Amino acid sequence: MSGKYDLVIVGGGISGASLLYTTAKFTDIESIALIEKESELAAINSDVTNNSQTLHFGDIETNYTLEKAEDVKEGAELLAGYLENHDPDREMHSKRSKMVLGVGDEEVEQLEQRYEEEGFGDLFPKLRAIDGDEIAEIEPKVVEGRDPSTEMLALQTPDGYVVDYGETTKSFVERAEEEANVDVYTGTEVEDITETLDGYTIGTTNGRFDCESAVVAAGSHSLQIAKDLGYGQDKVLLPIAGSFFLADDFLNGKVYTLQMKKLPFAAVHGDADVHDDSITRFGPTAKLVPTLERGRISTVKDFLDVFGLNAAAFLSYANILSDRILLPYVLRNLVYDLPEVGRRQFLPHVQKVVPSAELEDIERAKGYGGVRPQIVDTKNKSLDMGEAKIVGDDIIFNITPSPGASTCLKNALQDTERVLEFLDGEYEFDEAALREDTIENFPRIDDDDAADEETRTVTSPATDD
Question: Is the pLDDT of residue 273 over 80?
Fold first, then answer.
């Protein structure tokens, strides 16, 4: 098997698939191929069991600055609009309430400040500040069994999109394959990429692919491939594996807790499963693992390849893990995977969301969880936050930790523009048509609702004296 293409995309997860959809449907690029090493698309981190199924807007993620929330918001609305337009029967997603919960005076004050003073209430018109009584109406288990004298406040919105990113990946590819200029190859593992005079030659287990431009969207492996080509030498990976616990029918939607300061990992939250709302997930945990894929010992070698075993990498790890907040957090998370002990240690996190939860109500979700490739800058010996992208000569490497799935279409839009530059402006991109197919279908507050929202105020939570 071999071929000559204008563009080859390496990686059949949500990132690669969204780029395939964008370039196939909304550009006139003449020949595009996507190659995926697994026998099926979305078999690793995009699989429904390997992520928290959340579409991140930045409204209830309390580790986001307003600036980051503004950036993430557009990306989330692009994907939400796609789902609204192409998934009317809710086979790929579900839409429910979501909220971030503040418990106690300090957390309530933080949410009030975020909503009123920091501008999140203005940025997200559907976001409301609600007290304990209204929380109880939406999520009864969150209030049930809690001390009535405890102050509570939540920032709540109806835009709680729960997404099966695996099925969404397949939907992108199916739509792309409607075009005659698209080829998709699964079970095709990249063995090497070589730069040529007019692009790249990609050697695979199924033959050679020649292309003028390439985008590597292979998760943790993207940095590995970049380093083989001489890029990203000042970066290594801190792979973080996330796990979950399951419970029966605790929550109607999503309930987040406030982010711990200085931690780049999501705080524990509860989510009703995308396909079965009688199942509630709690997590994720965050465990450091020396692999690029969860549960695959064979990728230990790949991790060491990316790590490099050099002084700069070791010193960067030492600097990051010596943090007095991060180190205890990492050590504590190692415990959660232990039989029985882990469940007992994790229960208090569940009880912060659902006070009445008991030990027998939760069980570890076996076989769930993926790996988030957190980027480490070895020059500054620090963690890089957000998605990482390396742009080379006619090639892009996407290493996409959270919220890479949520912003997949925005990343695809940006990468499409760059690919057209690689191809010397020979082709055109109809961005307006992409937006018509996606973000223009995202439901917004109508004018009357917007007027009502302008008059809203934070309701002080009731207390029992």
Answer: yes
Structure tokens belonging to residue 326? 């991060």
Angle, CA 444 vertex, CA 439 and CA 450 arms, to 5°: 150
State mean pLDDT over 121-143: 97
Average pLDDT rounded to a whole number, residues 317-343? 86
Q: What is the pLDDT of residues 387-400, one digit of tens each?
A: 688 999 999 999 87
Q: CA 25 → CA 168, 172, 189, distances in Å?
A: 16, 10, 26
Residues 290-312 have a mean pLDDT of 87
In the predicted structure, residue 2 carries a pLDDT above the cut 90: no
| Bridge partners (DSSP) listed for residue 93 | 163
Distance, in Å, from the CA atom of 321 to the CA atom of 327, rounded to the nearest integer, reads 5
Contacts made by residues 427-436, CB under 8 angstroms, sequence distance 24+: 427/6, 427/27, 427/28, 427/29, 427/30, 428/27, 428/28, 429/26, 429/27, 430/26, 430/27, 431/26, 433/25, 433/26, 434/22, 434/25, 434/26, 434/409, 435/78
Q: How far apart are CA 119 and CA 139, in angstroms?
A: 26
Q: How far apart are the first and last CA of the chain?
A: 75
Dihedral over Cα of 115, 120, 123, 127: its sign: negative
DSSP 19-75: HHHHHHHHB--S-EEEE-SSSSTT-STTSTTSS--B---SSS-TT--HHHHHHHHHH
Its pTM stands at 0.92
Can you tell me whether residue 330 is helix, strand or coil? helix
Helix (H, G, I), strand (E, B) or coil at 76: helix
How many beta carbons lie within 10 A of that of residue 412, not counting itself?
30
Provide the pLDDT for residue 242.
Answer: 85
Both tokens of 255, joined, read 């309930």
User: Is the distance from CB of 255 to CB of 353 less than 8 angstroms?
Assistant: yes
pLDDT at 326: 80
List Cα–Cα distances, 77 to 174, 411, 431, in angstroms.
21, 13, 15
CA 228 to chain centre: 26
Element housing 212 (H / E):
strand 207-216
In one-letter notation, the amino acid at residue 117 is E
**CA-to-CA distance for 72 and 6, rounded, in angstroms?**
30
What is the Cα–Cα distance from 183 to 20, expressed in whole angstroms?
10
